[in-house]
Design goal:
Helix content: over 70%
Low-confidence stretches: 1-10
Number of strands: 0
Shape: elongated
Largest sheet: none
């Protein structure tokens, strides 16, 4: 083994993961900026971040803090939570498109969004727990019972 390899961390180490996260968040911000049809200079002004610093974030050279991500989110008019998830600060939220719609609603307070998400998730858990019981009941039913049920519901 050569001396140069000894000083380098193994592939996939923590430093490489940080670089990947920085690259991913930078690409995501660039994509969101492009979708919003905002120039780098415009976003830097809206977010209160210097143009060179924002450019470094987009290129994956710098990993922004949660505070900077919040400023960028405001400039892009997107949820700061979406940027936190992309940056690995928060775990990916559950709930699919309904959860995304609730989080994206600008007319709700953060507290209202959280209450709605909690209620929605409790319904999903309740339905998921009921589903195995319904499946078992359906499997136990006789074919003639199922045919009678389908005629009644028609």
């Amino acid at each position: 083994m050569s001396d140069t390899n000894r000083d380098q961390p193994p592939s996939g180490g923590p430093m490489e993961k940080v670089a990947d996260i920085a690259s991913d968040i930078g690409e995501y911000i660039r994509q969101q900026r492009s979708n919003a049809k905002i120039s780098l200079r415009q976003l830097s002004k809206l977010a209160g971040v210097s143009n060179p610093y924002l450019s470094q974030i987009e290129r994956g050279v710098r990993k922004p803090s949660a505070e900077i991500l919040q400023q960028i989110a405001k400039g892009l008019r997107i949820s700061a939570e979406a940027l936190y998830v992309q940056a690995g600060i928060l775990d990916l939220p559950t709930g699919g498109p309904v959860g995304d719609a609730i989080r994206a609603d600008t007319e709700l307070t953060e507290r209202q969004k959280q209450v709605l998400l909690d209620v929605y998730e409790s319904f999903r858990r309740e339905n998921a727990a009921a589903t195995p019981a319904q499946t078992t009941q359906a499997a136990d039913a006789k074919p003639e019972d199922q045919a009678a049920e389908s005629k009644e519901s028609a």
